[in-house]
Amino acid sequence: MSWKTLGALVLTLAFCPGLMAQSEAFHGIWEINLEKTTNYFQQSQMMINVPAPGGGFISTRAQIRQNNESSSTEIHPVGFDGKPYLTTGGDVREITYRLIDPRTIERTHNRDGRISVDREQVSEDGRTMTVTQADRVRIYDKKFNLVAPA
Q1: Can you give the residue range of the structural domain that contains 70?
Q2: For 30, which of 6, 7, 47, 76 could close a Cys bridge (C-beta 3.0–4.6 Å)?
Q3: Which of 149, 148, 133, 147 shows the shortest CA–CA distance to 37?
Q4: Inter-residue contact 66 to 91 (CB < 8 Å)
Q5: Domain containing 132 — which CATH number?
Q6: What is the Cα–Cα distance from 147 to 86, expressed in whole angstroms?
C-alpha cells in the first residue's frame, strides 16, 4: 500500500460521521514522551488512531530507533469482538483486544505461539496514554484529537 493510499484511508476514516465508538478516547495522534519513558529503546514513536467502520479503530504506529538506525511502521486493526487481528508491518503478530472501560484496552499478543498481555490506558483528562507491558511502561502525549464532523 502506498503512503498516498494510506493517507487517504486514514483521512477518510477520521472524518466519516457516525463512526465514533466507545473507544473514542484513543482516537487521535499520540507521540511518545521520552522524558517520562525511560526504559524504551526507540528514539521516536507516533500512533495515529482513527475510527474504523463497525467500531474499534485502526492504529498506525511509526517508530525510529536510536541514532536513526532504522525505522518501521505497523498497522493494527483494533476490534473489540474477541477475535484476533493480524497486524502488518514491522512486527507481524495477532492481537486480540478487549475494551475494559472507555479509557482502557487489554491487548493479548500472539507472536508465533508466544502469548503476552499488555494494557493501554488514556488518562481522565485525555492528554496522556500509558502502555504497560511486563517489562516496560511507555507514556504518550496526545498531539491532536480526531473528531467526526457533526
Answers
A1: 3-144
A2: 47
A3: 133
A4: no
A5: 2.40.128.20
A6: 26
Work out the average pLDDT over 7-17: 42
Could you tell me if 86 and 73 are in contact, meaning their C-beta atoms sit under 8 angstroms apart? no
Q: State the pLDDT at residue 149.
A: 54
Element (H, E) at 65: strand 57-65
Please state which of the ranges 31-40, 76-85, 105-114 shows the lowest mean pLDDT.
31-40
> Is pLDDT above 60 for 24?
yes
Amino acid at 67: N
Has residue 102 been placed in a domain? yes
Structural domain count, the chain: 1
pTM: 0.80
Query: What pLDDT shows up at residue 113?
Result: 95
The 3-state DSSP class for residue 6 equals helix
Assigned domain for 15 exists: yes
Residue with cell 477475535: 83
149 within some domain: no
Give the pLDDT confidence score for residue 98 in this predicted structure.
Answer: 96
**Percent helix, strand and coil across the chain, each to the nearest 5:** 10, 50, 40
pLDDT above 60: residue 12: no
| Three-state SS at 23 | coil
